[in-house]
Amino acid sequence: MPRAVHLKAGTVLFRVGEAGDVAYFIEKGRVRIYSSDGPDAVVLGEHGRGQLVGEMAIIDGGARSATVVALEDCTLYGVSRDQITKRLETVDPVIRACLETILVRFRAAMSTVRELRAEREATVFTSAPCAIGGKLLDSAAKSLELENDILSGLEDGQFDVHFQPVVRLNDRQLHGFEALIRWDHPTLGRISPARFIPVAEASGLMPQITTWMVEAALDGLRTIDLALSLDPGSRKAPRLNVNLSAHDLAQPEQLMRHLREATRSRAIPPWRVTLEITETALMANEQEAADCLHALKALGFGVAIDDFGTGYANLSYVRVLPATVLKLDRSFINAVSEDAITQRLVKSVLSLGQDLDMKVVAEGLERPEDIQTLQDMGCLLGQGYAFAKPMDTLAAAKWARDSRNSGAASSVKATGADTPARREPSPAPRVA
Ligand code: C2E
Ligand code: CA
Ligand code: CA
After folding, report:
1. 89 dihedral zone (left: phi>0; alpha: psi -120 to 50; beta)
2. 318 CA → ligand 2 middle, Å
């Protein structure tokens, strides 16, 4: 993926007719667009900060339609053809057809300009104002900048993995951990995964993030095993949940090879690892996702449907997926103690889980009364601030050891949590 380009005033960025696989966002300075390369070139426009140049070639794969020269010293961010292609794949076909038609017509108009120029005296086209709203370009620029930052963040070790315990509700023992990614951006500080994961998904960076996460989470799990003096193959060792995105399932061979090698090299049996995928992501490409999940299950990995109840999936669809776990979304759990309809829905999900041989995990448990309600309803597993917030590897290892040794609620509350708890935690669980 291209990075920032620094251009001295007077330097040519690219020439008409060249093959182009990079567009540029102007971060600093101004550039001038010429219709051709020669002395009779017509000035087509000038662009400055926040604007895009060279975008046509990377959308339709054609040659450069203009020559671009820096008027001042410039800093530009490169946007590769790959970055655009991934985004175009997900665009509505009607919008895509319109975009391609506009490009074809624009290229035809440009060649007419060149022909006319050859016949007549110099005509100077004044710079047309950019028709695209500043806000739109600004948000596109921010997304692309974040995308470049994700790549350098992966290279520079800015990402970290945090672990949140999943607890058995009947005896409050530790069942396992969900691995959650954390990013400490050098200038923006801690950025929520809810903000950068969608950018990584749109740009095709998700497989790289998942690869990194799988390695980091499995390393963290080994640290936790060591803190508990447990062999990686021990039945008592905690389980690990890792989140996948729909894009990971689109490259099943690569994903499966990596998961198999990453677990094997650490002697972690696949049954300890469950892969979480959201209903919405599953619906994006149901057959492809189902095939990949079946193959993962055949390798021995667990499969969890995350945020269950938020994706409008129908029941027959849930039946054909090879899920071993349903993670019941926080929105149900928040209302379970007060709202009779929510209680009925949760009961239905619990009996669905039982019928289809899937464990149900209640997510986002914050209040002791909700833990009690769910336990009374027969829910076996829960996760939420009531037990512990996500914490770094060493804190998670300490949490697992402390809770096994003492079961002291106070030690649970004190360890490296990354989000403030809103209510008192319930008594700490013990490791199985
Ligand atoms: P998720 O997979 O549903 O993860 C649970 C989220 O709920 C986490 O937010 C967790 O910190 C938060 N949470 C846990 N217990 C409670 C609670 O009691 N109350 C409240 N209010 N929140 C609770 P986080 O870590 O900010 O992650 C947000 C989302 O980002 C995740 O939702 C997941 O969809 C995505 N994500 C995080 N890490 C990864 C990753 O490594 N890969 C992928 N593909 N997605 C990830
Ligand atoms: Ca999850
Ligand atoms: Ca969830």
Report:
1. alpha
2. 17
For residue 388, which of 431, 419, 432 has the smallest C-alpha distance?
419
Pairing of strands 31-34, 43-47: antiparallel
pLDDT tens track for 286-333: 788 889 999 999 999 999 999 998 876 667 667 778 899 999 999 999
User: Do the bridges between strand 4-7 and strand 22-28 make them parallel or antiparallel, or are there none, so unpaired?
Assistant: unpaired
Verify whether ligand 1 is closer than 6 Å to residue 329 (CB atom): no
Out of 180, 196, 251, mutate this one to test ligand 1's pocket (max ligand atoms within 8 Å of CB): namely 180
With CA atoms as reference, report the closest residue to 191 among 159, 223, 222, 215. 159
Q: Cα separation of 354 and 359, whole Å?
A: 7
Name which of 125, 11, 22 is nearest 68 in CA terms.
Answer: 11
Whether the pTM exceeds 0.85: the reply is: no
Give the span between the Cα atoms of 391 and 421, in whole angstroms: 13
Query: Does the Cβ of 388 fall within 6 Å of ligand 1?
Result: no
- Residue 150 near residue 199, CB atoms below 8 Å: yes
Closest CA relative to residue 26, chosen from 82, 71, 60: 71
Q: Within 10 A of 147 (CB to CB), how many other CB atoms are there?
A: 21
Q: Which residues contact 338 (CB under 8 A, 6 or more apart)?
A: none
Q: Please name which of 383, 394, 372, 334 lies closest in space to residue 175, comparing C-alpha atoms.
A: 383
**Distance from Cα 92 to the centre of ligand 3, integer Å:** 28
50 has pLDDT over 70: yes
Strands 173-185 and 159-168: antiparallel
Distance CA 122, CA 142 (A): 39
Residue 421's pLDDT band (boundaries 50, 70, 90)? very low
Residues 6+ apart with CB under 8 A from 231: 225, 237, 267
Contacts of 208 (CB under 8 A, 6+ apart): 151, 154
Q: Residue 71 has what pLDDT?
A: 94
- 3-class secondary structure, 117: helix
- How far is the CA of 65 from the CAs of 40, 62, 85, in angstroms? 16, 8, 19
Q: How far apart are CA 206 and CA 257, in angstroms?
A: 16
